[in-house]
Design brief:
Radius of gyration: 48 Å
Helix content: over 70%
Number of strands: 0
Length: about 200
């Protein structure tokens, strides 16, 4: 049973290794693949790798347990004990390989997450900079409009003041002309000048 399982796992391992390699290649392409997609590819690669390694560990444990049971039932030779030790070592090597693979993929995922955060932070900063620039441009525009309005009001006041002065001058002139018609004295005319 263990032999058949191991033969099946040889093909499964090859297919899993190919798929993991494809996913890690995708995850390595920082230019064309987003950080989010790279993280998903790495997580999938980790899942596939762990799944096949767990199957291999189960097969190795089955073979090891079988050998231990066989050695317990009969008088074990040196070769039998060596085989048991080799099977135990193989089991430990598979577990170690699984842990190394997990560590490697976890490190890659961590790196991809840091890059994703950096990309998101840069994107947020870019958006905030645009908002700040737009707000500053709007403030500048509104200030310019207010300046035009203030200048216009000032000119209106000046014009009104000029018009008022012209009215007063005109009224003064009319009063003097009226006094001239009435043959007023210079002193009477001076009183009108003083008034205006």
């Amino acid at each position: 049973k263990a032999d058949k399982l191991e033969r099946t796992l040889i093909v499964e391992r090859a297919k899993a290794d190919r798929k993991v390699a494809e996913l890690r290649e995708k995850a390595a392409d920082k230019d064309k693949v987003s950080a989010k997609d790279r993280i998903a590819a790495l997580e999938e690669a980790g899942r596939i790798s762990e799944e096949i390694t767990n199957k291999e560990i189960a097969a190795a444990k089955l073979r090891f347990d079988s050998k231990v049971a066989e050695n317990a039932l009969s008088k074990s030779t040196k070769e039998d004990l060596d085989e048991e030790a080799n099977l135990k070592a193989r089991l430990i090597q598979l577990e170690t390989a699984r842990l190394r693979q997990q560590k490697s993929i976890t490190a890659e995922i961590s790196g991809a997450r840091k890059q994703e955060k950096a990309e998101l932070d840069a994107e947020a900063k870019e958006k905030q900079d645009k908002i700040d620039k737009d707000a500053n441009d709007e403030r500048t525009r509104l200030d310019a409009i207010q300046k035009v309005r203030d200048d216009f009001k000032e000119k209106q006041k000046e014009k009104e003041a000029e018009t008022e002065l012209e009215k007063i001058d005109l009224e003064e002139q009319k009063k003097i002309e009226e006094l001239d018609k009435l043959k007023a004295t210079e002193q009477q005319k001076q009183e009108v000048y003083d008034y205006y």
